[in-house]
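Run log, item B.
One chain of 454 residues. Sequence copied directly from the ordering sheet:
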Amino acid sequence: MSVASLERPARQGWLDYRTIWRWHFYAGLFCVPFIIILSITGMLYLFKPQVEAWIDRPYNRLALAGPAADADAQAVAAVAAVPGGRLQSYILPEPGQAVRVLVRDKGGTLWRVYVHPESLAILHKVADEDRLMQQIKRIHGELLMGDRGSLLVELAACWGIVMLVSGLYLWWPRNGQGWAGTAYPRLRAGGRTFWRDIHAVVGFWISLLALFLLLTGLPWATVWGAGFKMAREATGTTAGRQDWTTSRAAEKAADAAEDAAASHAHHHDPAMMLAGAVGLTEIAARAAELHIAGPVLINPPKTADGPWAVRGMSQNRPERVSVDLDGMTGAVLYRQDFADRHIIDRAVGIGVAAHEGQLFGPFNQALGVLAALGLVLLSVSGAVMWWKRRPTGALGAPPALRFRGSAALMTGLLLVFALLLPVLGASLIIIGLLDLLLLRRLTGARRWLGLRPA
């Protein structure tokens, strides 16, 4: 995207340099605003544990004087605080903290209720979706636009991959060019060369890390995630419930199914939680003895004689554990540690934990911050370069010259990207149809966009 590159002749080789550059330009132009939003929100979400601990600080250091009430009483108090509420999860409390109980109301909204462990007073109540980090997650995953926003984020991520891969090819030293302006910037050059070097050097150093973040985000994506799940089902590599969701619609469908199952267990009645051979109090004591990494959620049985589900929901997913306890005896019926999961689930889990900055502590968060800031700087420097060299009355795309490369290789490369990233493939078809049916008839528009003459 630099003027210096414009002045170079088209290069010989298997891949046409100028064609790759044009794809890089168009991908970057579309991606820049989304990359900036995703980078900033992703960077904030890296610090979810610290932010939520700071927000919850009034409920994390309570002055406790006597014995705590039992877990059944705490859960009953929480459910009573939500009209028409039903116990969703009891979160195993840490010493000195308020008890967190998740309660779903009759409209399907999930509430987080903070209960004083001794007096059973309701200290705070908030809809789980309204919490700050949940809002940031929604911006990051769907731009506050629901499933349409999820598709837009997935499209931006796919074109972001194209942008990064093409950028690596463009800026890789060749023909004796050396590492100046690629591995380190020529800060004294000034002007357009300075911005070109900043763009190239930052891209060179953070591209692989940024690619990792984009690729590990794909399992959450609506289309790619659904296709991945279908492929696993077709190949028999899926085992148990998937540990991540692919869209808001998928989350709501899962919640609706859970509500339908739970409606037969009578947990809409707080008093019914005390019935049965083993109540929540004993189950909570058994769960504490398992020493599972927190937060530990205890979910009531979905049927009258079903098991209690104990789920370790650590953001560092390799620490997650799932245990089912018998509703009649409290005995362990089933336990699944991370090592027991299918290798694909483990690979995705490790990728997700690294994506969220929780796999290996503060250093993981620091790498995430570095990648996010690098992507912002990459986007800003690219926009500045475009702005400085844009011609009057045109978008400023690199001029289309005679193709000099292997058409078969370029086509094959494009097909590989389209097949691996279906949303990208669909967008390419739409772009091709627009070019064929509309833009060919609009000479002025083609000239402004920098397209070849029809």
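Observations after the first pass:
- Residues 329 and 371 are 50 Å apart (CA to CA).
- DSSP finds 15 helices and eight strands in the chain.
Flagged for discussion on Thursday.
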